[in-house]
Amino acid sequence: PEDTNVIDDILASQDSLQEEHVFVLRPNSYSNASLLGTTSQDGLLPRLLQRIKKLPGSKPRFLVSEGKDAGNCLTWFKDLPGSLALDNRLLMPEIPELVFVLKATNINEV
Fold first, then answer.
1. pLDDT per residue of the chain (110 residues) written in tens, 0 to 9
2. In whole angstroms, what is the distance from residue 23 CA to residue 8 CA?
3. Domain of residue 62, residue span
């Protein structure tokens, strides 16, 4: 499906910074059905989460959220270890289209 390419693009666009992987997703770019799924088809978020969980040597650690309707996305990540939601724009660089950043760090890091 077309969304599989989107997931591949998100995972391929990661930046590595001191052994941390930073993923950027802009949920406002997708319809609610595409993002969260329907009764007949999984959405982008649940499938992306499954792919991130399977990344070798890493686990999701931080979730930084801001932007319109980001709360819908947060529900998918609420059970991740170390998840953190921030809604203070002063803590983030000025990037209007940024909704949230999910950081996955090496599982061996303290």
1. 556 677 777 666 655 444 455 555 666 667 778 877 888 888 887 787 777 667 666 544 444 455 555 666 666 665 555 444 444 444 444 444 434 454 444 443 33
2. 11
3. 2-106
Q: How many domains does the chain have?
A: 1
Asked if residue 60 lies in contact with residue 50, where contact means CB atoms within 8 angstroms, the answer is no
User: Does residue 105 contact residue 20 with C-beta atoms inside 8 Å?
Assistant: yes
Identify the pLDDT of residue 72. Answer: 61
> DSSP states of 30-44 as a string?
S-HHHHHB-SSSB-H
**DSSP letters spanning 43-110:** -HHHHHHHHHHTSTTEEEEEEEE-STTHHHHHHHHTTSTT------GGGS-S-TT--EEEEEEETT--
